[in-house]
Structure formats: C-alpha cells, structure tokens
Design a protein that fits this description.
2,3-Dihydroxybiphenyl 1,2-Dioxygenase, domain 1, eight-stranded mixed beta sheet
Length: 301
C-alpha cells in the first residue's frame, strides 16, 4: 500500500548553487551521490521520515545516452530546467511496489514495472530501492518508490541525522506536511489521481494561502493537494508560468520565528505571510529564492 509522500524532487541547473540556496532557506542539505548511467546527481535534506531531493544533470552526454524522457508536462529534464526548474515529481512511498503496480493495473492505470535503482553516497553507502513510473495514458507527475534500504540506514547518509535527530535544520523543519499540484480543473484531475492512488476522491475545500480550491489526498502523515486557483496567488502563478504540475511543498517547523530569522540573516527577502483556512499561520518562500518552487513553513511562532 501507499504509505506517505516520501519526498519531492526539485530540479536545478547547478547542484552546488541549489544546495547553497536551500542552506540559506535553513535546510541542512548534503551531497547525495550520483545515479549510475543516468548522468544525474542529487543532494538530500533529511527530515524525520521524508526528505527534500535536489536533482541536477551531472553529465550531459551520459544523460543523453541514458535516453532520459518524460511522459509528464514540462518536457524532458533539460527542458524543464531551462524553463525555470522547480518541483518535477512528488514521490509516493510504497511498502510493496510490485503489489501496488499490479493493483494499479487492475484499476486500468498505465504504469511501468517496478525497476531496481540505487546510488552510492559520498560516504560509500549503497542505497537500494525500486521505482515505477506512470505511462502516457496517466501522465501525472508522480513517481512510486519502495526503499530496500531501511530508513535508519538511509538517515546515516546525512551527518547528525544518523544520530537520531530529525535533520538539525536551522529552520527547525522536521517533516513534510503537504505537496501541491496545480491544475485548471481540480474535480477532473482529482478523479484521475483517485484512480491511480486507489483512494476515494476528496471533497474540494478552499485554501487561503495558495488561493485555490483543492482536493487533498491523505497519504499517511502527509497530504497531496490537487489545487485549482480561484484568485491570484501561488497556484495561479504556477499554473500560468509552468502549466499543470507540482509547485509547492509545505513543511512543518517547531519554530516559525527560527525559520524567518535564519532566512533574513542569510540575505533572502522576508518570507510572505498568510493564514490557512483553519487559522494557522504560514510563511512562503517564492520560486525566485527556492529554485523554481514555492516552499512553505507552518508551525508555532
């Protein structure tokens, strides 16, 4: 079954520069390693049980040889990056991907086989997983993953996280709350996501920070929001700039003040403020400072 959102993949033109920018946002982010034969490399900011992945092309020639392509809107990875980068995939964690792929196919979903993957970290760890991608008849920006390396071992790739702490982020983030996907028609899109995920279609409700009507799929401790803008705001901006697709990740912090203070002390503009529909305050880093993505923070002041 699908357990949670495992991570979001944020694509950037230069990995070192992307890492520096996310450090300014208060994330304790480190080099993750290379993807053998793919021409890409990544960096990881680990939370308690999820993480942020920054992804960039390391070797253009190797990437071309790998035949990198995509069924989702936004084109190939190089085209996506040239257009501004940002969140390309929302990655959903499975506890048995072969079983989940079979279940999706039984629902008529166009999905590929569960394929073995892995990478070696700079510290010499070999991390293993299985992934599955959706086919052209269900061209949604989702990737499905089953980790074959236990989370306790995966945490060790990042200094200090392996000692049992959430991530030691200066912004005091400890978990992903939600990821949002913009669409011009939330009802129609949510019906497709419901079939792919094997979940009931949620009722739409109004989001007052992203200014969108949204259907939120509850995946364990995380939520996947399918958002149709009703007024100018982040969802409308994302839809106009990039078309349908993921545009925001919202993170829970133990201290909004710590996050805001760190950002301003490191030369970034003050984070935009808003109030969620249930009254909780939120802050938002815009695509200009978050490598093409909206990155939100919620939590106590």
């Amino acid at each position: 079954m699908f357990k949670r959102i495992d991570h979001v993949t944020i694509c950037v033109p230069d990995l070192a520069q992307g890492m520096e920018q996310y450090r300014k946002l208060g994330f304790n982010i480190h080099a993750g390693g290379t993807h053998a034969g793919k021409g890409t490399h990544n960096a990881i900011a680990f939370n308690q049980d999820d993480y942020i992945e920054l992804l960039a092309i390391r070797d253009q020639a190797e990437y071309k040889i790998s035949g990198g392509r995509s069924n989702i809107p936004g084109g190939t990875l190089p085209e996506f990056i040239v257009a501004g980068g940002g969140i390309r995939y929302v990655v959903i964690q499975s506890d048995d991907l072969v079983v989940d792929v079979a279940a999706m196919r039984n629902r008529g979903v166009d999905v590929g086989d569960a394929i073995d993957g892995g990478r070696r970290t700079p510290g010499g760890q070999d991390l293993q997983w299985k992934t599955a991608l959706l086919g052209p008849r269900n061209a949604l920006p989702l990737v499905f993953i089953e980790h074959l390396t236990p989370v306790e071992e995966r945490r060790k790739q990042v200094p200090d996280v392996g000692k049992g702490q959430a991530g030691n982020h200066p912004n005091e983030v400890y978990k992903l709350e939600r990821a949002y996907i913009a669409t011009p028609d939330a009802e129609t899109a949510a019906a497709m996501y419901a079939n792919v995920l094997g979940m009931p279609q949620p009722t739409l409700h109004r989001g007052t920070v992203i200014m969108a009507n949204m259907a939120v799929f509850e995946l364990g401790p995380t939520g996947l929001g399918i958002a149709q803008p009703y007024a100018p705001g982040p969802a409308a901006d994302a839809l106009e700039r990039r078309g349908p697709g993921p545009f925001q990740a919202l993170y829970r912090t133990t201290s909004m003040s710590a996050a805001a203070r760190w950002v301003e002390e490191h030369g970034l503009p003050p984070l935009a403020r808003g109030v969620r529909s249930h009254g909780e305050h939120a802050m938002l880093a815009t695509p200009g400072v978050a490598c093409g993505a909206y990155i939100g923070f919620v939590g106590p002041q």
